[in-house]
Amino acid sequence: MNYFNTTFSIISLLNLILAGVVIFWERRNIGTTWAWVMVLLFLPGVGFFLYLILGQNLSRRKLYKIKSATQDTINEMIEEQRSNFQESRIEYHDPSMAKYQD
Length: 102
Hints:
The protein is mainly alpha-helical.
């Protein structure tokens, strides 16, 4: 029985810490924050896993966000292609396309 009490205490303490993280770390609607805090506190063993699965805000902006270094590399490649087109340095391997080079 002592093992059960110790395990429950550790899970409750971790849950309390994670509830604090939810409150202070993420910028969310107040109602949403309170709902997740209540889930974390009333479901100590399962609440955190529910939060990890369902509570993450994966908007398309964050999901498809390109890092600045990658964006800089892409911009450099685009500029190189533009200059190649303007200076007619593009080689056409298909002879039928060569007549459209202009």
